[in-house]
TrEMBL record:
Belongs to the GARS family. Keywords: ATP-binding, Ligase, Manganese, Metal-binding, Nucleotide-binding, Purine biosynthesis. The keyword Nucleotide-binding applies. It catalyses: 5-phospho-beta-D-ribosylamine + glycine + ATP = N(1)-(5-phospho-beta-D-ribosyl)glycinamide + ADP + phosphate + H(+). Its EC number is 6.3.4.13. SMART domains: GARS_A, GARS_C. It comes from Lactonifactor longoviformis DSM 17459. Pathway: Purine metabolism; IMP biosynthesis via de novo pathway; N(1)-(5-phospho-D-ribosyl)glycinamide from 5-phospho-alpha-D-ribose 1-diphosphate: step 2/2. The keyword GTP-binding does not apply. This is Phosphoribosylamine--glycine ligase. GO terms for biological process: 'de novo' IMP biosynthetic process; purine nucleobase biosynthetic process.
Length: 423
């Protein structure tokens, strides 16, 4: 098979690494890719939103299957564009990717189908939102409706902070058109857990659990980022929690989308909050998480191509999805100053230390080739993942492995997976 992967981050590197292990595949392309993905794939200079060029490339090169990693092209309708050309593609169509593309849509869906989530209201008028906040309880959460690179969520502890948040999202349009609609949501407390799943329109198979660390600095301080590290499995995701979610959240979401005439094929990422009243849905994503993919995929026993094709063909019920009985931790190496301002273009040293080391992986997020060497090319540069027999060993291994890599402006959190000590 020939496979095309669309995207350029650590998630797409993890997907490419998984695809490269499949005996079914003998050629991988990635558009646009990065320096790490180039180890497995031929990187093609086509942007993820250039649908016409991507479909033309897939046809010209007889690509058998395209896997879309990123949210923007999915929400923009890339799957519809590929299907219109008779091409096999993995991911939700535009009318199903709205599950991530519009927080107002997903909240309304959960309310309609009694899927547990936080109480909320949607607003299209800034003054109406400000009036509502006068009578609200605090803390409270403000969310830009559309895609905002994982940064469009503000937790406000006071009325003044919330008023400033409305200005940021709806008036100053800091997140662009994503802020045309704003969701105001009750603040939930508890443990956050991420559960990714494969879906074929009717059947859902969940992957192993994970937990992300969104804030830029230690102790969950600083600004929200795309993710500074993650671990899998979550010790807080118990069999009891799993049973509740299977009955009330996972299949219910798939059935709700089908009932709305928006059958979902692809990946549904469930962002959960484990509250005192039980699990609640924080958010949905319509693709692999990043960096969740970097800890979940290395633990998956299945051939990813077999699972993906079963989703495309509607035969997922025939797949026995299995994961290793171990743990994985990913620590993101970022450019100091991320997610605001940072320099790039610095040479990266030490990547060769990961060669032939079983259980250690380095996934490239923001890298490129320059003058024959690999240099930094983004805020999140690398995701260093290590496995272990349990979470403590995996964490120790991951933090050992980040010392193998050096580049100017290297920054990382020191407390990824620290929560496991409280389990």
């Amino acid at each position: 098979m020939k496979v095309l992967i669309v995207g350029s981050g650590g998630r797409e590197h993890a997907i490419a690494w998984s695809v490269a292990k499949s005996p079914k595949v003998d050629k991988i392309y990635c558009a646009p890719g990065n320096a790490g993905i180039a180890e497995y794939a031929e990187c093609v200079e086509i942007g993820a939103m250039e649908f016409d060029r991507l479909t033309a490339f897939a046809k010209e090169n007889a690509v058998d299957l395209t896997i879309v990693g990123m949210d923007d092209p999915l929400v923009g309708g890339i799957v519809d564009a590929f299907e219109a050309e008779g091409l096999r593609v993995f991911g939700p169509r535009k009318n199903a990717a709205i599950l991530e593309g519009s927080k107002a849509f997903s909240k309304d869906l959960m309310k309609k189908y009694n899927i547990p989530t936080a109480a909320y209201e949607n607003f299209t008028d800034a003054q109406a939102a400000l009036n509502y906040l006068e009578t609200a309880e605090y803390p409270i959460v403000l969310k830009a409706d559309g895609l905002a690179l994982g940064k469009g969520v503000l937790i406000c502890n006071t009325l003044e902070e919330a008023q400033e948040g409305v200005k940021t999202i709806m008036l100053d349009k800091q997140f662009g058109t994503a802020g045309n609609i704003m969701v105001i949501e009750e603040f939930m407390t508890g443990r956050e857990v991420s559960v990714l799943s494969f879906v074929d329109g009717k059947t859902i198979k969940t992957m192993t659990s994970a937990q992300d660390h969104k804030r830029a600095k230690d102790n969950d301080e600083g600004l929200n980022t795309g993710g500074m590290g993650t671990f899998s499995p979550s010790p807080f995701y118990t069999e009891e929690v799993d049973a509740f979610c299977r009955e009330n959240i996972y299949q219910a979401t798939v059935d709700a989308m089908a009932a709305e005439g928006r059958p979902f094929k692809g990946i549904i990422f469930f962002g959960l909050m484990l509250t005192e009243k039980g699990p609640r849905v924080l958010e949905y994503n319509a693709r692999f998480g990043d960096p969740e993919a970097q800890v979940v995929l290395p633990r998956m026993k299945n051939d990813i191509i077999e699972v993906v094709e079963a989703c495309v063909d509607g035969t997922l019920d025939q797949i026995d999805l299995q994961f290793e009985d171990n743990a994985a931790v990913c620590v993101v190496l970022a450019s100091d100053g991320y997610p605001v301002a940072y320099e790039k273009g610095f040479p990266i040293h030490g990547l060769e230390a990961f060669k032939d080391r079983d259980g250690y992986y380095v996934f490239h997020a923001g890298t490129k080739f320059k003058d024959g060497e690999i240099v930094t090319n983004g805020g999140r540069v690398l995701g260093v993942t290590a496995k272990g027999k349990d979470l403590r060993e995996a964490r120790k291994n991951a933090y050992k492995a980040i010392d193998w890599i050096e580049f100017e402006n290297k920054y990382h959190r020191n407390d990824i997976g620290k929560a496991i000590d409280e389990a």
